[in-house]
């Protein structure tokens, strides 16, 4: 029988992160390039990660009384232009379809985001203070016509996301929930994806087109570049005014409500891969892993049947509580199969050979550290569960330490330039002006990531009066 | 406090089915028209039904080793044209986007179905007989530029669906699984949606563009029109040849595989509404109902607190096993709230007033029959569960009887014309020729729905030699 050849990752992560990333995403079969320029195919192993994110977040939505719905893919150009700032911000990225209807020449945008098309409906649905808060989310595909090079999960012309769109009676409630959602995203990132993030407010230059302000979570990749991983926008009343959303208050007086919108996308998967992976391939935190454990029986001609039987017993026990694969591909060597599960990032590999069976044990191998443990067969379920938690914690702690080491405080232009050159994330006092922000970008290619808090002193770049403390770094 | 006014359904189902349907879909808040011509908004109550269908069908996919994935929304025109029959069939309905890339003039189609874009990837992924069967499904939005009047869920330019796309080593396996999927759709329709269907093969005129043959499930609406509710296409080897999909068999010989594709869409929701609803609004079978029971406490000033407390107790017990709402809208009359839950199709309403509490009972009201039962509080969970099953069975049985009464055998042109005029589904012997099928359509406006089995005798329409028994009817 012909053995299939399989090539592992051929570059080191710390030597060529970009090429390493491309190889891991494709060889672990998370995603693939498509013949459609700029678009990606999300393969089953990658899509299963997205489904885990959906499952987790649908629970969060439910707890917070947000209902899922679905709005049209197409947005008439006239809707798009109702909120001027919004239209201006998105126009360069919009894909238009040729309108086949003969009675109109109006172009239709393929949604880059759905504020406009959703709020048009909201204006017909919302009548009274009793309808508020009004909270809807949609899971959808969106299109933004990127012209920079495609990077699977991180920069593609189409991606999948969720977008939450809520309407509130008061400014206070809107503000509070805009913060609630960024906090939920922080939890999603840290608790589920073992990915620590910086949390803060975007500068006016970087905020969402049409928003009063934007809150963001940013994860830091091994090359020191920030990855914007989720945003929550306080839209104030501008969209409500543009789309005619109003409600009658308790005194039957007409009022304009307040709105926010918030989203995370399949980009999260890209960050996860880049942060945790190693030279052997993908490393998945157990809580997000579609396969948490792979059982690999080691076959010898004489003991094949017995080994497979024992492996099945382990499988039948573990499958009750965990996502497990039994790898019975007899036509592949044990070594090949070990490498395959490593490449695919499965948190724990369970090896089982005839000698192990004699000793009534199995070998549990951690993907994150490579550490092996010999565990009595009867103790496998308990130890397996413990190990999953240890791996999840270990990945988060390592990522936290890495992030900490990547952040550095700077006090002047020279330190700022040096730190950015060394691929650091800088934390600094900032004057908050658009001009100074633009200057930093020109000089260092770093962009503002998020405002941490109010601050005093001097701006590290222009020495003017500082208003806030902020992160700057290169970014994806 | 101002009470909100709410208008129920203002037409009788049997007087104006079309208008009745539009009102139910909109007033029960399942879906809404959008300012985007031809597109619909699926509102939370409707989307929750879709999620129930997804939940059910994801289990079926899992059992059958089909993995979910996601492929690009856009399809290059050149892909589209690789399979001539396919391209010809879909071209009139395709929406094209303006390609913003300057280095190409190739138009991109917004997917009307994904055979072409998926099989292009398949041609790179499938190598060996060990990769087969290769089974992928995607949940996605698709666009078909309908020019006929929009009908929410039934005829819209964008809809949601799942499309399964499998590749097999042998013709036999492909054939067998093409049948398996139509059988799974029959089960989904009958077991989950309480919607009986006709099952059979499409004629060559009605089959999927590019398929060897198409199997279909067709439900029959109260007006005698058939609704094509799910299809499974045996694609033979034509797409594999057009897209260069091949595999090495066990002898390392290059072979062309066999393929099928199969799908159901949000159209299922439209059929469900039209079949089961009544003059009070939506009637949902319990297994698909996002809300299975609504508890409506009846408030009087003095006993309000106690009544609400008792209602909460029932809620807390039932919510452990069922999807329940507690309707504590004090500002609406009990009658208004009863009507609201009827309109929304909730299978069981639980009424609870101070007199009921005195008697330690609640009133369970069935949505399907309107029958009331007084049930001791301690027996509510058990009776609630039983009633759900009774309602599910009753809806299916009624629908089966209705369908049976709608089908009639015809033996000649006169009977055929009369039966179609009377909005019947006809069962008849058929010669199987394209010309005869076309003639029937011209004369009666009925189209062939599906071939039941081989048959002998004379064609009911042209008196020529019959080859098969078939259903003809008007259709959506």
Q: How are the SSEs ordered, and which strands pair?
A:
2 copies of one chain form a homodimer.
Chain A: H1 17-27, E1 31-33, E2 40-42, H2 44-63, E3 67-68, E4 74-76, H3 77-80, H4 84-90, E5 95-97, E6 108-110, H5 115-125, E7 134-143, E8 158-168, H6 171-192, E9 198-201, E10 213-220, E11 226-236, H7 238-243, E12 247-248, E13 254-255, E14 258-265, H8 267-276, E15 293-297, H9 304-318, E16 324-326, H10 334-343, E17 348-352, H11 354-358, E18 361-366, E19 372-376, H12 380-406, E20 407-409, H13 413-421, E21 425-430, H14 434-444, E22 447-454, E23 468-473
Parallel strand pairs in A: 3-7, 15-16, 15-17, 20-21
Antiparallel strand pairs in A: 1-2, 4-6, 5-6, 7-8, 8-14, 9-10, 10-11, 11-14, 12-13, 17-18, 18-19, 21-23, 22-23
Largest sheet geometry of chain A: 7 strands, mixed
Count of individual beta strands of chain A: 23
Structural class by SSE content of chain A: alpha+beta
Given the structure, what is the number of helices of chain A? Answer: 14
Strand order of the largest sheet of chain A: 3-7-8-14-11-10-9
| End-to-end C-alpha gap of chain A | 45 Å
The count of domains of chain A is 3
Strand content of chain A: 25-35%
Provide the residue-averaged pLDDT of chain A: 96
